[in-house]
Amino acid sequence: MFPNDDDGLVLQMLKDEGIDFSIPQPLDFAISCPDKRSAKKILKALKREGFTAEIEEDEGEWSCYAFVVTHLDYDTIVEIQERLHQLATPFDGQSDGWGVMVVPED
Questions:
Q1: Distance between CA 97 and CA 26 in Å, rounded?
Q2: Which of 66, 45, 68 has its CA nearest to residue 55?
Q3: Would you say 38 and 93 are in contact if contact means Cβ atoms under 8 Å apart?
Q4: Which CATH homologous superfamily contains domain 6-100?
Q5: Phi-psi region of 97 (alpha: psi -120 to 50; beta: other; left: phi over 0)
Q6: Whole-number percent of the chain with pLDDT over 90
Q7: Cβ contact 67:3 at 8 Å
Q8: Is pLDDT above 90 for 63?
Q9: Where does the pLDDT of residue 1 fall: very low under 50, low under 70, confident under 90, or very high at 90 and above?
Q10: Does the model's pTM come out above 0.70?
Q11: In terms of DSSP bridges, do strands 25-33 and 52-58 run parallel, antiparallel, or are they unpaired?
Q12: Where does the record place the Regulator of ribonuclease activity B domain (predicted)?
């Protein structure tokens, strides 16, 4: 049903678990950053583009996270990742996957 890549496999797993794809879900997209300075620049670029975002440091590794509430749709997820990649690349960052905190059904 989904393409045979990392994004497609995760979406298929979520579908197999019975997640309701008709309900928008909160997704967080990770961007790995080489250092704090780059993370701050990426954060600024994301916010300028209208993303809700934050930076985080974990044991010397810097990441920037963009938060989007959207439907679990393959094309939408790939499009968001591509946009984040475009914004992060000038600052030596790179898109590093996504996650979802599933909204429970009522």
A1: 14
A2: 66
A3: yes
A4: RraB-like (3.30.70.970)
A5: left
A6: 89
A7: no
A8: yes
A9: confident
A10: yes
A11: unpaired
A12: 5-100
